[in-house]
Design brief:
The protein is 71% helix and 0% strand. The protein is an all-alpha fold. The chain folds into two domains: 47 residues, Arc Repressor Mutant, subunit A (Orthogonal Bundle), CATH 1.10.10.60; 136 residues, Orthogonal Bundle (Tetracycline Repressor, domain 2), CATH 1.10.357.
Length: 223
């Protein structure tokens, strides 16, 4: 082997592109199929056999990936949790933070297909009678509350009660999801605009979500 061949061998080759994990791709197809089944037939009426037929595999093969419907719900929650975490991580810091958050809220609450809202209602209804599903819902909300409150703490002043404001925003978001699922002609736009104004007022300390006087109003003369 000559010097030139040794030098050629020393040049690192371009790394091979990552190949998608076929098992993860199949899990994603199962979750997509389960979403369609839950929206079409309801969570409670959907069976594992229904999901298997929807995805085009045998029930025995399906159980290799998800042993129960509760496990499917956990998989859906984990997938949504990952997507939401990426969305929040991509929000810009500084002056654009709140505006970017409004855009994110509008995308998830207004622009998503209505089937997503129906799926939420199905899972929430199951959570009222299934402790395992209820625990999944509580954990997802806990993480959402932490991320949203973190944004409000960054964007607001020291007097902002970020947790109280987050609670109001989450209740409004739940109402939007519920009405989108139940009322097909419901327009979430005006409610989202009101949510935006409420958040801006709270961050500017013109509105106190706890009901106490804010510094801005406390200094005003009362009639």
């Amino acid at each position: 082997m000559n010097v030139h061949s040794r030098s050629w061998c020393a040049v690192p080759a371009d790394p091979l592109p990552d190949r998608p994990d076929p098992s993860e791709e199949r899990r994603g197809r199962i979750l997509d199929a389960a979403e369609r089944c839950f929206v079409r037939s309801g969570f409670h009426r959907t069976t594992m056999q229904d999901v298997a037929a929807e995805v085009g595999m045998s029930p025995g093969n399906l159980y290799r990936y998800f042993p129960s419907k509760d496990a499917i719900v956990a998989g859906l929650a984990e997938r949504d949790r990952g997507a939401v975490a990426l969305d929040f991580a991509a929000l810009p810091a500084g002056a654009d933070l709140v505006g970017a958050f409004f855009g994110l809220a509008r995308r998830h609450l207004a622009d998503e297909p209505v089937e997503k809202a129906i799926l939420c209602l199905e899972i929430w209804a199951e959570a009222t009678r299934n402790p395992a599903v209820a625990a999944i819902c509580r954990e997802f909300e806990r993480e959402m509350r932490g991320m949203i409150a973190g944004i409000f703490r960054q964007a607001g002043g020291p007097g902002i009660d970020a947790e109280a404001l987050t609670q109001i925003v989450l209740v409004m978001a739940d109402g939007i999801i519920t009405r989108r699922a139940l009322l097909r002609d419901f327009d979430p736009g005006p409610i989202l605009d009101a949510m935006s104004r409420l958040i801006e007022a709270a961050l500017a300390e013109r509105f106190d979500p706890t009901g106490a006087q804010t510094p801005a109003t406390a200094n005003q003369d009362t009639p």
